[in-house]
Design goal:
This protein has about 190 residues and is of the alpha+beta class. Helices cover about 30% and strands about 40% of the residues. It is found in: Cell surface.
Amino acid sequence: MKRFVNEEGLTLIELLTALTIASLIFASAYGVFLSGIKAYKRIGIENQLRSEADYVIATIMNELYRFAPDGIDTASSTNERITFIKNKQKVIDPDIGLVEEKKVNEQTLTIELQNETILMNGESLNSDNLKIVPEKSSLSYDCVRKEGTVCRSGIVTIVLSVQDRDHDSEDDLLYIEPFSLKTEFGF
């Protein structure tokens, strides 16, 4: 091992230069580390929002499958509300063996966007952290076959623009812009 011939040490200029270079390297590494942690948290929050929005849509689809609606009440449906109705039942006539549709007591299932939440028959489907952005969210339908005020078949479109309630301010370090999820299904 080769030793310094000059045992006088480092000059003040050399020491300050070395400290300055080291502090610049450490500050850069710290900044990259913090940026990585923020990006990791942001991605985690976005994934949680997607999962919750998927859960809301899956809950709606499962309830509609269970309810088996006969159509949409066009008189009470708006851009923020869709009312599904069930007012017919298929019955086999024992005398002639044919299937007939008979009117029964009307049941309804309402899906509604209200106060930054999505409601099904008045009950909130989303968690407290999931914020539905009302300006960018909508419920709509395209009717293919209509009987009076009831749309018997068509396509329902649900557009949910979601955001995290805890990080919805643009000044927040973990601010996440709202993103939209669009679901279409036929009935």
